[in-house]
From TrEMBL:
Name listed for the protein in its UniProt record: Uncharacterized protein
UniProt entry keywords in alphabetical sequence: Signal
Superkingdom of the source species: Bacteria
UniProt source species: Taibaiella chishuiensis
Record's signal peptide: 1-24
Amino acid sequence: MKCFFLYNKTLLLCLCLPVSGLLSCSGNKTSGRAGITSNPDSLEGKQVYLNPADGNTYSTSGAFETYGPEGGTTPKYGPAVLQKIILLTDEPTMERVISIDTLDSYFDADSNTLAAVFKDYKQEGDLLIQFTLYAGKQPLIIVANNGNFDTAILRHLDNALQRNCSYYRTRMDSCTYQAFYRIGTQAPASAAGNKPLQSLH
């Protein structure tokens, strides 16, 4: 698993790229073993990611690693703060099917959509949004959450994402990425603790 950071204006993005295969998994499982996590916020050093959004397991013979600038980054605050981007498609495929500039514009659009949806929302929590992009059809979007989100706001988010992201496309084939957000005024800190994310779908 190779992970690296890209810079999107002042935003730091963690890109985690699997280098081995995809195995079937049947749900939001957690494990006490140090090499396994279902928490996208604690991928570094792990070998197995139990994806809470699609229920699949992503594994690597090495470990998830992260890299960043020497001074760190400035914390951001707001109704919805993007913490990291996790790429679930390998790096050579990503580079072939979609440009970094296009992905960057999608990340900006995603953040704008979430900021609008949660502008006046008083609760806090974590959201993991998985996007599978295709060349010839609308993206598949899956939302997993952890926090005190009511059904109405999650449905509003789902509808806004389906509407605002309907134009997302690859040049060819498909690719999948996840956007991990903290919702609430203290977004840079852990908003919802260590409870597992629950899929909306």
